[in-house]
Amino acid sequence: MATIPVTAALIFGALLYLRGWLRLRGAIPLWRAASFLAGIFSVWLAAASPLAMMDEHLLTAHMVQHLLLLTIGPAFILLGFPALMTPAWLAERMPRRPHPLFSLCAASAVLIGWHIPAVFALSFHSVMWHYVQHATFLVAGLLFWQPVIPARPGESHHDWPVVLYLFMATLPCDALSAFLAFNGRVVYPEYLNVPRHFGLSALQDQQCAGALMWTVVTFAYLIPAVLVTMGLLTDSTARGSLRPTVTEAEAIALRQR
Length: 257
Description:
Mean pLDDT: 85
Number of strands: 0
Order of helices and strands: HHHHHHHHHHHH
Largest sheet: none
Structural class: mainly alpha
């Protein structure tokens, strides 16, 4: 089963990161290492845990996988500053940071593309395409979060366009989640002939998946947008407080000239 090589690859990646972190632990806080490991665990949950077997029975389980691979796991991984732990020979071969527009379009295309019923059916009935789907979700998630999460300590490229970027990213997610939650028919007929779980009908399962996606994505994008906004406002206030002030005596002297 592919779960064994996936698990082995994730463990290898975690050990490689920890080796680098132990070498640089004075510069990288413990919480960032914990964040990276949480991201690796999220990917494992989605791709190699018993949850990965449930997506053939529940669209909600598939949605949990998608959220872990596209939204949650990549964010935690990048918060761990993995670029600093990458061996020099590998770092030289890694591509440069993508343009935000490319990242946004890639993530949106992967999200919408894999949920087109005909494409969804392809991944549902083919093991190979199922793993391709997982891989593209993870890559798209890493691309998406790079314009938001700094790659190194002290590096920050946050500006008001980042807030707009996060807002724009919610639109395709909201459209898809609303389509699933409020559609009166089952969009993916593959789930009509599978064992039912938790007393959910196929339509109720679909509605639950849509509601879950809307809720998680809203908070996942809203929280960093608020943090970026607060940081920008704080910086603006700090810059304003550094402006030279005119004393009362100087103001009187200026008026008397």
